[in-house]
Amino acid sequence: MKKRPPKRLLGRRELIDLPALALRGVVAKVDTGAYTSAIHCADLHLEADAETGQPVLHVRLLDPEHPLTDGRPLAFREFTQRSIRSSNGEVQTRYVIRTVVQLYGQRFDTEFSLADRSDLKHPVLLGRSLLRQGRFVVDVARRDMSYKAEHPAAEPLPGAVPTTDEAVQT
């Protein structure tokens, strides 16, 4: 029988890196109710590549917590469109890209839908497909488990709320 790697713990909110998009320390909500992960973007539009004529998806990345990247334009040559049910039950057609997310020092290639999340608190949502791929389980009483594992001697994050274990120790 094939031995599976152990499951790792994520909290309800995690700090993640998206190395292919040159983003570090992005706040992401872990959502076991969502199948596909999502990234907050605006101004999504297609333009034909000048050389090949192939469509290129242009977006503006939105993350007010990262002023240097908030509003930064991104372009994707590889993307798909898919019908995705939003949290309020409405089916939307969204663009979907593949990119790398880093948790616990490990990189996972996964899909992200591109959506306007301006009415939501977190710019990134991590869905079940990533949780299954990484063999993650979620403890909603915790936060930033991956960051804490990668940076054990680091100072607490600004605005961090103690986890259950930390609250007991104080």
Measured by DSSP, the beta-strand proportion falls in: over 45%
The whole-angstrom Rg is: 17 Å
Low-pLDDT regions: 159-170
Question: Fraction of residues in helices?
Answer: 10-25%
The first-to-last residue Cα distance is 44 Å
Task: Please tell me about this protein's structure.
By secondary structure, the protein is mainly β. Helices cover 11% and strands 48% of the residues. It is built from 3 helices and 10 strands. A hairpin with a 6-residue loop joins strand 3 (37-48) and strand 4 (55-61). The N and C termini lie far apart (44 Å). Residues 159-170 have low confidence and may be disordered.
Quick summary:
The chain has 170 residues and is mostly beta strands. It contains 3 helices and 10 strands; from the N terminus they run E-E-E-E-E-E-E-E-E-H-E-H-H.
